[in-house]
From TrEMBL:
<dbReference type="Pfam" id="PF00561">
    <property type="entry name" value="Abhydrolase_1"/>
</dbReference>
<keyword id="KW-0378">Hydrolase</keyword>
<dbReference type="InterPro" id="IPR029058">
    <property type="entry name" value="AB_hydrolase_fold"/>
</dbReference>
<dbReference type="InterPro" id="IPR000073">
    <property type="entry name" value="AB_hydrolase_1"/>
</dbReference>
<feature type="domain" description="AB hydrolase-1">
    <location>
        <begin position="11"/>
        <end position="109"/>
    </location>
</feature>
<protein>
    <submittedName>
        <fullName>Pimeloyl-ACP methyl ester carboxylesterase</fullName>
    </submittedName>
</protein>
<dbReference type="GO" id="GO:0016787">
    <property type="term" value="F:hydrolase activity"/>
</dbReference>
């Protein structure tokens, strides 16, 4: 069963992180959604955070995990939000289990195919040799040789934890990601449609959702609308959490 943090009372609202992320990334926003009357479930998807590791890693497997999570927690009419990879999971879940979902929010990802673009990040993570028992500062120094952006490094290094005294490790399953990286770019199948209200939010400085993608989005999600957060990149919910919260809450309360 997936690891989750459940807070609040009210309508169930599932939140799913992106690639190499975890539920902790959404802790602050989750608390705000709780205050507006939701029961918030922030998940760690398989091979991420505190959830189980598995050699099988695909969108279909992740959707099955979420379905089993909903069954185990008696969640029926839910709203669901996913960022990046989590947005792909949310799209596939909504289109294949539409009876369970009332509203869908997708943050800075589209249903199209995305070519591999995490090579530098993975190179930096793979360069860390935990057998020599590096410190947190040592790990950051190694990763910084491959990942120049400070915010991205801090996002990645949130995955460090003390596996045992004196021994750090990453929470995510790096080996599986290395072996299955193509899985993350997989598009939504052409025949899948979710006709209920859907909100796409993109960062104004991010290239993940282009104007040229809107016709394809409309084919899958005919009842969608698009909002743009100006001056924000791919981590739009972290760069402008106030506007992200306002846009999503307005949509959920419609």
């Amino acid at each position: 069963m997936l690891y989750s943090k459940i807070e609040g009372e009210g309508k169930p609202f599932i939140i799913m992180h992106g690639f190499l992320g975890m539920s902790d990334n959404w802790k602050t926003l989750a608390g705000q959604y709780v205050e507006t009357g939701f029961q918030v479930h922030i998940l760690d998807l398989r091979n991420h955070g505190r959830s189980f590791h598995s050699d099988e890693w695909s969108y279909e497997a992740m959707v099955q995990d979420v379905f089993e999570y909903c069954q185990a927690n008696n969640l029926t009419r839910i709203d669901i939000l996913g960022h990046s990879m989590g947005g792909k999971v949310a799209m596939l879940f909504a289109t294949t289990h539409s009876d369970l979902v009332d509203k869908l929010i997708v943050a800075d990802i589209g249903p199209k195919f995305y070519k591999q673009h995490h090579q530098d990040i993975l190179a930096g993570l793979n360069a860390v040799d935990f057998s020599v028992k590096p410190s947190r500062n040592d790990v950051e120094a190694i990763v910084s040789q491959y990942v120049s952006d400070f915010g991205t490094r801090q996002f990645l290094l949130k995955n460090l934890y003390w596996k045992e005294p004196g021994q750090l490790a990453f929470r995510f399953n790096l080996e599986v990601f290395n072996n299955n990286l193509d899985a993350i770019g997989k598009p939504l199948a052409d025949n899948l449609v979710f006709a209920k209200p859907t909100l796409f939010i993109r960062g104004g400085e991010s290239g993940y959702i282009l104007d040229s993608d809107l016709d394809e989005i409309r084919r899958h999600f005919p009842n969608f609308k698009l909002e743009t957060i100006p001056n924000a990149g791919h981590w739009l919910h972290a760069e402008n959490p106030k506007m992200f919260f306002e846009l999503t809450t307005a949509f959920l309360k419609e």
